[in-house]
Amino acid sequence: MKTEHSFVNSSDHTFKEYENIAIPESERNHKSSELFTLWFATNLTIGDFAIGFIPILLNLSLEMTVLALITGNVFGAILLAYMSKTGPFTGLPQMIAGRRAFGNRFGIFMSGLQWLNTLGWLTVNLVLAAFAFTLAFHIPYYEVSIILLAIIIFMISFSGRKLISYFEKIMSVVLGIMFSFIIISSLFKISYIYAYKPVYYGFGAAFGITLATSFSYIMSWGPYAADYSRYNKEKNAFIYTFSGGLIASLWAEIAGVFIAILSFNPSGNPAIDLKSVLGPYGIVGLFAIFLGGIAANAINLYSNSVSLKTTGIKMKRFNTVMIGIVVSIILAIITYSKFYSFYEDFLFILDYWITPWIGIMIADFFIINRHREFDTKKISGFNKSGIFSYFIALLISIPFMDPGVIYEGIISKLYLGGVDISYYVSFIIALVLYPLIKKIINKRTITNNVK
Questions:
Q1: Torsions phi, psi of 365, nearest 5?
Q2: What fold is seen in the domain 4-351?
């Protein structure tokens, strides 16, 4: 009979229910450089590429588009890198590591949100990959492409973290070459790019939406990060995650911007536009899109299954992975016909929960607890400091929200021209509040004990 420790060593193949088990520090010996290729491959994908279309559809100038994309990606990559750095500290999956700040019981709620988050990204990338796969292989129905790609993603993800890491290394090279080809091909038509005449040049709603979507995309990997870095050495985990994610995400988005401009009238299907612009070499772009979708979704599905397990549901890994892929297939079939409206709303709404969570995580790991010790057995059911900080930050950020037709925050509408800055507001407030509230609660506890 295998011991719990031996299951950790072979978890990539047997997947013992190890989500509550910390990888021993002696076994966190993977080179941190693998985090570069992992986050490079998973961000050099169609999801980022599609974001490049958004500012062009909004008629934002090229200069302001580039500024918004650089700013959003830099700040988003910083948050992702900080979350990645928590993995080597604890050896725990990301959502379990977050329970010190929120408590075990409230942590179950957060794991549920992360399950929904990964499910949404599974759907987004599955739809985008299916667009390209359908065109590349002349498949008559999108539904068939969605199912075929889902089967491939399931097999890679179910095989475990080790295979995923190898797959992403290969994809970092393949996708790097393909996206280089897309960029270089676009630059041969640089005169058309310079001739682009947009409507909006300043820091208005179009700039704000572009900034928010680019920031939201890369930042949304934060609740995944330690799922992979917990096997790695602490040294340079931050810089490899930051650089891999930033370079790839910005690269893919700029490629999307060029293709959107060169298509003259984007169709709403980035695969069709890419094939049209590349002409006889369109097949290269189509392969880049659907391979990138597979690369991103291998991680999405893996973390989706881990998130479901961390809610406390007693279920075999095969079943958790199967639930994630089946639900994403259904959602992809429902949403693919109206993809861009779904994508923009998804990027705004589903990610609202993440930034205050990351703010509290950073405060907990890098301001309050500056050490590696982490005993899951000593975590309470509810950590009032984290819970209060989280909901206060969310509530204060609501007037700054503007996810479109669903809701318009009063401050965003009246004073910001419809620009949504709630991500940044909730992050900063949570980051500042958590140490303060924790200090107040601890002081009262000590006072009461003395009495």
A1: -85, -35
A2: Hydantoin permease (1.10.4160)
Three-class secondary structure of residue 117 per DSSP = helix
CA distances from 367 to 109, 308, 428, 431 (A): 24, 29, 14, 9
* Residue 413 pLDDT grade (very low, low, confident, very high; cuts 50, 70, 90): confident
| Cα 124 from Cα 9, distance rounded (Å) | 33
Q: How far is CA 347 from CA 44, 207, 215, 416, in A?
A: 17, 15, 10, 19
How far is residue 57's CA from residue 55's CA, in Å, rounded to a whole number?
A: 5
Question: Which among 324, 272, 306 is positioned nearest to 126, based on CA atoms?
Answer: 324
**Chain-centre distance for alpha carbon 273:** 25
- pLDDT, tens digit, 9 for 90 and up, residues 221-263: 999 899 989 888 877 899 999 999 999 999 999 999 999 999 8
Q: Which amino acid is at 104?
A: N
Report helix, strand or coil for 177.
helix
135 contacts 419 by C-beta, under 8 angstroms: no
Chain-centroid distance, C-alpha 71? 17
Q: HSE (CB half, 13 Å, CA atoms) of 299?
A: 31
From residue 87, how far is each of 128, 218, 242, 361 by CA, in Å?
Answer: 30, 18, 14, 12
Please state the domain extents for the chain: 4-351
| Pairwise CA distance, residues 17 & 306, whole Å | 9
Task: Provide the token pair at 91.
Answer: 């050896």
Cβ-count burial of 340 within 10 angstroms (0-12 exposed, 13-18 middle, 19+ buried)? middle
